[in-house]
Amino acid sequence: MIMGSRSKRTVGLALAAGAALLVLSACSSGDASGGGEGGGSSEGAIPLGYTATLSGDFASYGLEMREGIDLAIEEINADGGVLERDLTTEVVDDEGKPANGPVIAQEMCDNAEIPAVLGFSFSSVALSGLPIYTQCGLPIVASAATSPELSGASDIFFRTVFTDAYQGAEAASFISEHRGVKKVAVLYQQDDYGKGVADALSTGIEEAGGEVTSSQAYQLGTVNFGSTVDTALKGDPDAVFIGGFYTEAGKIVNQIRDAGSDIPIFASDGAASPLFLDLAGANAEGVEVYAAFSASDPRAESSAFVKAFTKKYDKEPSSWAALAYDATYVVSDAIESAGSTDRAAVAEAIQNTKDFAGVSGNISFDDEGNRVGDLTFQRVEDGKFVVITD
To answer: What residue stretch is flagged as signal peptide (predicted)?
Structure first.
């Protein structure tokens, strides 16, 4: 079981060009031959697949996940590796394009040394490649793919992030019960993620006896939300909920405040990013979001992770970094428990994960591969996300 002391050492990254996609191989101590002092054997190192959006407008989620993975692998290797072997990564930029999902899946499947795959910024990319991963029996532990369509879609798919359906319902409960909100204006990005969260939240609000005063979709990349904000505020809601990424959420918050409104604002986990704080600036104060992780979590596992991450990257970790870090430890623990890198054995061990003490909380998986656990609700205070205790 890889659940003990988490020391660390440096892992370098070696770059290699792929035929159709950019493929990056991360090797211990900067090359394929060095294990480093205190590490496992570099001979026969175990490569974990990692695919996410690492370029373009929405690269931040993938890059943040990769930071969590790199840190976890450094610690695991410094602690003796897995089955006395180092871990490495085989990294592919999916560019956020669903068409790339099957291509990458086939590439991962064809590498018989890969026992599991991490990552996925977008559910659409995971969905497009999932039939191929399923066919070759290669297990996935995703960290940002939240679509309910992935629930039970394959017996080799798991995730450390919570589903849109669960998160939206929990947000509705929090807003209704703990904030006394009866009327909500909903804004959401026009895709599976935004609509999934908005639908679940809207249903929850109405089941609690509340009212959705307006529900408006917007396109990714939108800059001017003037008419959207006007429509939302004209319904005289008690609060506004934003289901979307930090890029648009930051702009919406600014434009609500610029309109002279001090209405309470709630947002989905897509806004739980340090970049949201940068975009919204002082207007972010008081905004409440949900996520699986907070850097202010006082638990020992979380505080140790935040300390190690901050030392390595000179910044606090995002929720995505934490979820990917946990996914890496879940996979390494499963390989150790299986006693081999056999894909079927690793998938079974992942399914049997129970109450794994992750930095984002205890991790278990239900029969559909979904994470079982609790969200954290957070408020922006003095420019930081702080766990809400009231």
So the answer is: 1-28
386: DSSP letter: E
- Evaluate the CA torsion angle 252, 254, 259, 265 in order and state its sign: positive
The domain locations on the chain are 11-162+297-373, 164-291
Element (H, E) at 243: strand 239-243
- What CA–CA distances, in Å, run from 178 to 296, 302, 377? 21, 25, 11
d(CA 73, CA 310) in angstroms, rounded, equals 16
Q: Which residue has the tokens 């904030």?
A: 179
Q: Matching CATH topology for 11-162+297-373 and 164-291? A: yes
With CA atoms as reference, report the closest residue to 274 among 257, 294, 292, 255: 294
Contact 241, 270 (CB under 8 A): no
Q: Are 343 and 138 in contact (CB under 8 A)?
A: yes
CB 377 within 8 A of CB 390: no
User: Does pLDDT of 217 surpass 50?
Assistant: yes
Strand order in the sheet with 371-372: 356-358, 361-365, 371-372
Q: Rounded to an integer, what distance in angstroms lies between the CA atom of residue 255 and that of residue 249?
A: 10
Confidence band (pLDDT; 50, 70, 90) for 43? low
Residue 141 near residue 161 (C-beta atoms within 8 A): no
This prediction has a pTM of: 0.85
Superfamily for 11-162+297-373?
Response regulator (3.40.50.2300)
Amino acid letter, 28: S
Q: Distance between CA atoms of 19 and 339, rounded to whole angstroms? A: 34
The architecture in CATH of the region 164-291 reads: 3-Layer(aba) Sandwich (3.40)
**Strands of the 41-52 sheet, one edge to the other:** 11-17, 22-28, 85-93, 41-52, 117-119, 140-142, 157-159
Q: Which helix (H) or strand (E) holds 140?
A: strand 140-142
Question: Is pLDDT larger for residue 347 or for residue 37?
Answer: 347
Identify whether the C-beta of residue 159 lies closer than 8 Å to the C-beta of residue 370: yes
Q: What tens digit of pLDDT does each residue of 341-390 get?
A: 999 999 999 999 999 999 999 999 999 999 999 999 999 999 999 999 87
